[in-house]
Amino acid sequence: MKNVLVQIYYRPLAYEDKKANPLEQMENVVVVVVVVVVVVVVVVVVVVVEVVVVVVVQVVVVEVVIAVIVVVVVVVVEVVVVALVVAVVVVVVEVVVVVVVVVVVVVVVVVVVVVVVVVVVVVVVVVVVVVVVVVVVVEVVVIIVVVVVVAADEK
């Protein structure tokens, strides 16, 4: 868990990394925003629960001791829940980023393949047209030579 938090809070900022990948920048922003929102919501809920528990339990002095125990248990549960929620959020964000990267790579590969196929088809068509033009020109020259030779033989 500590390594995950270190990765979240110590990633280079986009303005510090001149060669930053836009997907990494997006990942940093999304991770920080999601983690902050989740932590704030969990802390607010736990504080409200703590206040309600403390107010209800402090009716009698003996119950104050029980309230302290309950608050300690709630805080421990809060820390565990926050750690689990942060870990789940980080994993989900990483999976989403990986899926986006895979989709982008697949789209780029498909575009490159289509461009290569189009270029190959254009080159083949140009070669065929050039060959046809050369063949037609040679046939016309041969016909002219044959006509000239036949005409010369008849004279």
From TrEMBL:
<keyword id="KW-1133">Transmembrane helix</keyword>
<keyword id="KW-0812">Transmembrane</keyword>
<feature type="transmembrane region" description="Helical">
    <location>
        <begin position="64"/>
        <end position="89"/>
    </location>
</feature>
<dbReference type="GO" id="GO:0016020">
    <property type="term" value="C:membrane"/>
</dbReference>
<dbReference type="GO" id="GO:0055085">
    <property type="term" value="P:transmembrane transport"/>
</dbReference>
<keyword id="KW-0472">Membrane</keyword>
<feature type="transmembrane region" description="Helical">
    <location>
        <begin position="96"/>
        <end position="121"/>
    </location>
</feature>
<feature type="transmembrane region" description="Helical">
    <location>
        <begin position="127"/>
        <end position="152"/>
    </location>
</feature>
<protein>
    <recommendedName>
        <fullName>ABC transmembrane type-1 domain-containing protein</fullName>
    </recommendedName>
</protein>
<dbReference type="InterPro" id="IPR000515">
    <property type="entry name" value="MetI-like"/>
</dbReference>
<feature type="transmembrane region" description="Helical">
    <location>
        <begin position="29"/>
        <end position="58"/>
    </location>
</feature>
<feature type="domain" description="ABC transmembrane type-1">
    <location>
        <begin position="65"/>
        <end position="155"/>
    </location>
</feature>
